[in-house]
Amino acid sequence: MAITVTADFDGFGHRAGVSRMPRHGIAVKRTRREGAEGPANRVKVPNAEILRASGPASPLPGVIGAAVVQAARRSAHLTRQRLARQLNVSVTTVRSWESGTIPLFAVPYGQLKQLAQTLDRAGAQGGTELGDLLLASRCDLLLTGMLNGFEDYAEVPPIEENGAEAESARSLLRWALAGQVPDRYRQHAPPRRLLDKKHIDLIAAIAHDLQAESHGADLVDFGRVLVAVANHCASHSRGSATC
Predict the structure, then answer these.
(1) Which residues have CB under 8 Å from 109's CB, separation 6+?
(2) Nearest CA to 145 among 156, 134, 131?
């Protein structure tokens, strides 16, 4: 089953430098990429047929951001009710962020910034920088796009690069795929995968195709790193219940 993600980013892409994020009022669908140059043809994702034939829909689109927000809130000893009051939102909204029902990439930029500032003032460990939440949202959008077939790889987390942001992105993907919680969240989050095995297997299959130049030579290194993350998950599955 295809999903449609409608995002509301007032100035998000310009101010945060994330050109790939959907802009205000634009729906991102599995079969079309609105606003692309030329015809809005279907974007082919390797092994998308596996997802269509697998039966149940893909997981909630915001699992990484959900885990980050929940761990950060717990580290600050905030209840959902108290966080909701400080942000002037409903408890249902906070619960939806923490379940992944409302992914962070669908949260308005200003509200995401307010969330980071509120967590920071409360003394949270992680999630207190806007960049933390933006990176989690980018990783969620990557996985959601891959699993649902609308990922065009035009702007992806820099997992194949060196540096702090790249390592943070890799650690978030290891959390999702292998259940290895990043150090900053470890005391406040259980060591569990954020995706189930069926979806992890699909991500691994797509990563192998990327490494084999299915989307061109520019994405070979990106695919290679994704394969390494998937293999990390596979090694955990042989010696641990977390993957």
Answers:
(1) 9, 10, 11, 12, 15, 16
(2) 156
Q: Which tens digit of pLDDT belongs to each residue from 145-186?
A: 999 888 888 888 999 999 999 999 999 999 999 999 999 999
Q: In whole angstroms, how large is the CA radius of gyration of the chain?
A: 17
Higher pLDDT, 49 or 105: 105
Q: pLDDT tens-digit profile of 109-157?
A: 999 999 999 999 999 988 789 999 999 999 999 999 999 888 888 888 9
- 210 and 219 Cβ atoms separated by less than 8 Å: yes
Q: Which of 35, 24, 62, 23 is nearest to 145 (CA)?
A: 62
Distance, in Å, from the CA atom of 131 to the CA atom of 137, rounded to the nearest integer, reads 10
Question: Quick check: helix, strand or coil at residue 228?
Answer: helix
SS3 track for 140-197 = HHHHHHHHHCCCCCCCCCCCCCCCHHHHHHHHHHHHHHHCCCCHHHHHHCCCCCCCCH
Residue 6 phi, psi (nearest 5): -105, 115
Query: Which uninterrupted H or E stretch holds 5?
Result: strand 5-6
User: In the chain, what are the domain boundaries?
Assistant: 5-194
